[in-house]
Specification:
The protein has twelve helices and four strands; from the N terminus they run αααααααααααββαββ. It is mainly alpha-helical and 272 residues long.
Amino acid sequence: MRPPNRAWFLALIALAGPTTGVAAAQGPIDDSQPKAQEASATDAAAEAVQAIIKKHREAYDGFLEVYRAAETEEAKQKAVDDLLPDGNEYAGGLWEIVEANPGSEASLDAIVWIAQNAGSMQNSERALEAVAMYYMDDERASDILQRVYLTEKCLEPAQAILEGSESDANRCHACFALANYWKAQSEAAYTNNDALLAKAEAYLVRVTDEFADVPGRRGTMGAEAELQLFEIRNLAIGRVAPDIVGVDVEGHPRKLSDYRGKVVVLDFWGDW
């Protein structure tokens, strides 16, 4: 229960007139008990989160022990089928803690773990909503933004983080996630492909212009955005294919442009 506002409480006493005896001797209101209760609830939430995470880790360690001891592919597959823990089965308990403790550090710990270990669309939607509401300035939210799978329901909170966060890392990863969403939509669309690609391109350009030096999983986010922009501008469906020069099986030089206007099948393969 939220503690009463002290100024409001003192004003109420003043309106009641002078106090005497025991009431006058009480002095300042002691608000330490509500604070202690709040601290206790916070500690309990943190312990509950860590208990669920520990339970998953123990299950995973048990799986690894059996998997590594397996001597055949069949035995390994059986270990995967029977023992590999599903993060989504643990996410439900963590979401209960998040709902009971909105905006707390324990809840952020839970959401980060869910993003790392239980990447369903529903979990992504709930995670983005929580970040936009409570954690958009917390640097730890950038890990969530790099892992979630954006759906249409995620667009509003992701845009809110991009425009409202004080963290450049969070704004950058929200922007990059929005670019990937529109790029994926363009690849799945049969019509209006260029309009969807244009949206993705605009977000990627913003990453290169505003957040180029933000660290990513593979170098800087600016470099990652440049790779995506090259793909959109040069390799998307409907674009003119870049020229490819090589040697055929008989040793003759060949260029893809030599076959322009013809149906060409390219088979890329490798042997390592």
